[in-house]
Write a structure and sequence with these properties.
264 residues, 52% helix, alpha/beta, 8 strands, 3-stranded antiparallel β-sheet, Conserved hypothetical protein from pyrococcus furiosus pfu- 392566-001, ParB domain
Length: 264
């Protein structure tokens, strides 16, 4: 695997350097941070020091340094009022690509939206295709395509889902809901109810139910078609989250109602 070979070699063109904070550029989205967690992390750095430098790529054409990994460390150091940060600088483009994938896609606990943005950056700026990225990184092509779907979500949707720690499969399914108002409603519903769904299923002898969407007038067939599609996706993402569910669709003269039954 090309990425493994690159990471296992000690390549020339890397060095350690202090860089001013205002000279560091972001190529990946800044992650939403829980303020208390960030303060605790900053206190740890203040007490024990920065154990691992921030990794950056130096682009000679622009003369700028771009953060590859260490966004949370960067945020914590800014919170401490640091004006200069010690950085591990990479100048080799192939090593940059390998580091981007290793740090943002292969590490346990990596934010999935950073994984998505890292793949988008490599495709948009470095000449890769999803297939060539799969060959280079060893990631399954199906997972690369699933991560790329997350790019369809808006910034606020990504922020909510990231803070709620929704799974990659669930977020990818939400991203495929075409109607933005329905997508927002699904996200809000899951954030509110997902933590208690499993307890309700495990502790109840009955099969709890939830109304998936509000009733809609049948006089708007196109809207009904969109909601049919969205509710089916909602059922699928609930199944992907580890639940068994059954979708019921009832039609009257003026409206449609949808109910999802959660089963043990």
């Amino acid at each position: 695997m090309e990425l493994t070979n690159l990471l296992n070699k000690t390549l020339p063109g890397t060095y350690i350097k202090y860089i001013k904070c205002d000279e560091l550029e972001h190529i990946l989205p800044r992650l939403p941070h829980e303020e208390t967690d960030l303060v605790t992390f900053a206190e740890s750095i203040h007490r024990f020091g920065l154990i691992e430098p921030i990794r950056v790529f130096y682009e000679p054409d622009t003369g700028k340094h771009y953060i590859i990994s260490g966004e949370r460390r960067f945020a914590a150091l800014n919170l401490l009022g640091r004006t200069r940060i010690i950085c591990h600088v990479i100048t080799d483009p192939k090593l940059r690509d390998a580091t981007l994938i290793a740090e943002n896609c292969l590490k346990d606990g990596t934010d999935i939206f950073r994984s998505c943005r890292a793949l988008e950056y490599l495709i948009d700026n470095c000449g890769y295709t999803p297939s060539s990225l799969a060959h280079f990184s060893g990631l399954p092509l199906a997972r690369i395509n699933r991560l790329l779907k997350l790019g369809l979500l808006k910034a606020e949707e990504r922020r909510k889902l990231s803070l709620a720690k929704m799974s990659e499969q669930v977020c990818a399914e939400i991203a495929l809901i075409d109607e933005s108002t329905t997508r927002t409603a699904v996200i809000d519903y899951l954030i509110k109810h997902m933590p208690t769904m499993r307890d309700a299923i495990n502790n109840s002898a009955s099969k709890p139910k939830m109304q998936a969407v509000r009733a809609v007038h049948r006089s708007h067939p196109f809207k009904c078609e969109l909601i049919d599609n969205s509710v089916a996706r909602l059922k699928k993402l609930i199944d992907n989250a580890g639940f068994k569910s059954r979708l019921e669709r009832k039609a009257s003269e003026r409206e449609l109602t949808y109910t999802i039954s959660l089963q043990k």
